[in-house]
Design a protein that fits this description.
This protein is an alpha+beta fold and 461 residues long. Helix content is 44%, strand content 14%. Helix 2 crosses helix 5 and helix 10 crosses helix 11. InterPro entries: DUF222 (IPR003870), HNH_nuc (IPR003615).
């Protein structure tokens, strides 16, 4: 009896896991060559399987009488869960996979044979995605024999040149399309920093950068730089102009910090047990930051090492106490009879879930949704609510999808909030709320309860 494809793949994974290194360096390099070829071919196989899965799911949705404009919704999300990547990355990969099958078959065949890398295939896809299908297929037939030995950048240049040659107007079309996709991006960086980027038409980008540079040079020339470098002044000007605040370190009210009382005020005589006052705090929408960074934000000073206790005491901030279960370290449950998640309940869910609760998504929370549908009798409560991105809020309403809260032993709040997500194919995935920064997880003395502060920072005057 022939082996099932999944069983055969499982056997291959086992063999790779137990692979021994070759005895000589020459053979080790040969192993690396072959392993890279296997990795390339695996990406080609994933592309083929993804497109076949997309086709079959769309056909199934048609049988379920899903409106045509909604068919395909949730497919990339299931691929993302299976591959342990974000839904947005899965959507991009699925688009490329379909292009490799329909528009770039030569490039797809090279990837499936392991002769080019996934990044090289992505470069060809990206540089030709504005062409009509027939033109794209012609570029592919001309290009594929020449890219097996090219670098990723070289393949991109070759694809771009071939696209320009076959359609001289493509540059204008692509520029017009790109201008319609302008936007702003944000992602957390290390050491308490973040990267804020603008995808702009080139002329606007040059104008914005030159304006920041010109004004920053003027500030330094007039002696108002306070020892800051040109790049530091430009960064501060960017924040001040976008937020309207007079100083970059005067954080607006929308930002919230979560920290223990020890992290904010230092160790106190009545602290239940010694804890690190410099452990990680949490910034809503960003993630963990050093406690010194959080104290600097509360005090409204630029130097993360600078806030003194009097500066923290004078800070323009509102403090809200948040209690956790003394045994589990989980946030305590609160209930409400309202239909919409708002006010305290909305803030509570954001603090508990931190980012979108869908496994591997990690997008910012856009919606606060009922796990058991409100129309089915689901309560508007913290236990029945979760923070998710807008994309999943639409996906979970597709036929066959189901979400459910499960409880371990004990009442809600005594264990991590856990949701089981069932996809249209019957696959199940668990999503457990992350731990509260600095929370104790062992049982303390009877009657002791953890105290945290969420800090809504005032606009500095």
């Amino acid at each position: 009896m022939a082996k099932q494809p999944a069983t055969e793949l499982d056997r291959i994974v086992g063999q790779l896991r137990e692979l021994s290194c070759a005895p000589t360096d020459f053979d080790k390099v040969t192993q690396l060559e072959l392993l890279q070829q296997i990795a390339n071919a695996a990406h080609g196989a994933m592309a083929r399987v993804s497109v076949e899965f997309d086709d079959s799911q769309r056909a199934d949705q048609a049988l379920r009488q899903v409106p045509s404009r909604q068919r395909g919704r949730g497919v990339a999300d299931q691929i993302a869960l299976a591959r342990r990547i974000s839904p947005y990355q899965a959507s991009r990969d699925l688009g490329m996979a379909r292009a490799l099958r329909d528009d770039l078959p030569g490039t797809g065949a090279l990837l499936s044979a392991g002769r080019i890398s996934e990044r090289t295939a992505q470069a060809v896809h990206h540089e030709t995605d504005h062409l009509a299908r027939a033109d794209r297929q012609q570029v592919d037939s001309e290009l594929s024999p020449a890219i097996t030995d090219a670098t990723t950048a070289g393949a991109a240049r070759a694809a771009r040149a071939a696209a320009f040659a076959i359609d001289p107007d493509s540059a204008t079309k692509r520029a017009t399309k790109a201008a319609g996709e302008r936007g702003v991006s944000f992602r957390a960086a290390k050491d308490g920093m973040a990267r804020l980027g603008g995808y702009l038409p080139g002329i606007q980008g040059v104008a914005a950068h030159r304006a920041l540079r010109k004004d920053a040079k003027a500030i330094i020339a007039f002696g108002d730089g306070s020892g800051r470098t040109l790049q530091q002044v430009m960064a501060d000007l960017l924040v001040e102009r976008l937020t309207g605040q007079p100083r970059a370190c005067a954080v607006p009210v929308e930002v919230q910090l979560v920290m223990t009382e020890e992290q904010l005020f230092g160790e106190t005589p009545d602290s239940p047990e010694p804890r690190d006052p410099d452990g990680p705090s949490w910034v809503d929408g960003y993630g963990p930051v050093p406690a010194a960074f959080a104290r600097a934000a509360v005090a409204g000073v630029a130097d993360a090492l600078g806030p003194t206790p009097p500066e923290v005491d004078r800070a323009q901030a509102w403090l809200r106490r948040v209690f956790t279960d003394p045994c589990s370290g989980q946030l305590v449950d609160v209930d409400t009879n309202r239909r919409r998640f708002d006010g305290t309940v909305r803030r509570f869910i954001r603090l508990r879930d931190q980012f979108c609760r869908i496994p591997f998504c990690d997008a910012l929370i856009e919606d606060h949704d009922h796990i058991a549908r409100h129309s089915d009798g689901g309560a508007t409560s913290i236990d029945n609510g979760m923070g998710i991105c807008r994309r999943f809020n639409l996906v979970k309403e597709m036929p066959g999808w189901h979400t459910e809260v499960i409880h371990a032993a004990g009442p809600p709040g005594s264990h991590p909030h856990t949701v089981v997500i069932t996809t249209a194919t019957g696959k199940t995935y668990r999503s457990t709320s992350p731990p509260v920064p600095g929370a104790r997880t062992k049982r303390p003395d009877l009657g002791v309860i953890d105290l945290y502060f969420t800090t809504r920072l005032a606009q500095a005057s």
